[in-house]
Amino acid sequence: MLAMKPRISIVFVVLLAAIPLSAAQGGDGVDQADAKAALLEAYPGLFTISGNTVTWSDGATMVWDDGKARTAEELIKSPDIEDMFHYVYPTASAGDLIPDVDFDPGRIRNEAFFKKLYGASAAAVGHHLTTVKWLPKLGKYPVRITSLFGVDARLSKISNALQEMPADMSRFGLKPGGGFNWRVIAGTDQLSVHSFGAAFDINVGYSDYWFWNKPDDKGRIPFKNRIPLSIVTLFERQGFIWGGRWYHYDTMHFEYRPELLLYKEKQG
């Protein structure tokens, strides 16, 4: 277990206000038009969405919304595609936040959808993997990452920007936890986004993870973070979301999810 270092900051609780439903919103509050537009814009040319059907360029089809109401736990275990937009991801511009209980924007992933994007096996994903030289001026940290959607080039841009920052900032990128790793998420049977080469962990020595902390006397997981939001901003500009915005937080973790950033932009 990593030693925890205290972090002094002003924090604000994420307030999830009830939003009146319109005809364009599903029963879970997802803005259907904006969610579909965000997904199409994030991965152009791969599929179309008509009504409740996602049709891939090879003719395969998937259900957009199966109409099932899900608990927070079920959203993680068995979401449909629409469920991925259940929570609106708050960007770094919102400042320091303590996520509300079970507020996990980005942890909801339809596995079948991601297998169509990146490959349904380690071998299939491997056809698109390449090596990014992470922080080449500061050390030798080769990272295996997918080249699909320019993820490798995007990570290189983040690396270039981070290594030019002062040492008290660039240190958060040293000794990264890695990129591609075909594996399930600990304690589950669900594939990690690392399996698709679309996730990256920065310096593990400065990371905090929800499972390492005992719940408080009210049963709530205490939030901890040491990753500066200026670094989070670098990743978000390239289409990555941050695990530090989750109630079940993983502050070293970034994954390529442009659809969630586009949806946030459309929602204002």
Helix-strand layout with pairing:
Elements: E1 12-13, H1 32-42, E2 47-50, E3 53-56, E4 61-63, H2 72-77, E5 97-98, H3 111-118, H4 122-126, E6 129-134, E7 141-146, H5 151-163, H6 167-170, E8 176-178, E9 199-203, H7 229-236, E10 240-242, E11 253-256, H8 258-267
Parallel strand pairs: 1-5
Antiparallel strand pairs: 2-3, 3-4, 6-7, 8-9, 9-11, 10-11
- Tell me the radius of gyration: 18 Å
Largest sheet: 4 strands, antiparallel
Overall geometry: globular
Topology pattern, helix = H, strand = E:
EHEEEHEHHEEHHEEHEEH
- Termini separation: 39 Å
SSE class: alpha+beta
User: Into how many domains do the coordinates divide?
Assistant: 1
Low-confidence segments: 1-23
Please report which band the strand proportion falls in: under 5%, 5-15%, 15-25%, 25-35%, 35-45% or over 45%. 15-25%
- Number-wise, the strands total 11
Helix content: 10-25%
Strand order of the largest sheet: 8-9-11-10
Q: Quote the average pLDDT.
A: 90
How many alpha or pi helices?
8
Keywords: Signal
Signal peptide: 1-23
Organism: Mesorhizobium sangaii
Protein name: Peptidase M15C domain-containing protein
Fold and architecture overview:
With 268 residues, this protein is α+β, with helices and mostly antiparallel strands. Helix content is 24%, strand content 16%. Strands 8-9-11-10 form a 4-stranded antiparallel sheet. Strands 2-3-4 form a 3-stranded antiparallel sheet, with no helix packed on it. A two-stranded parallel sheet has the order 1-5. Helix 1 (32-42) packs antiparallel against helix 8. The longest helix has 13 residues, at 151-163. It starts with 11 loop residues before the first strand and ends with a helix. The model is unreliable at 1-23 (pLDDT under 50).
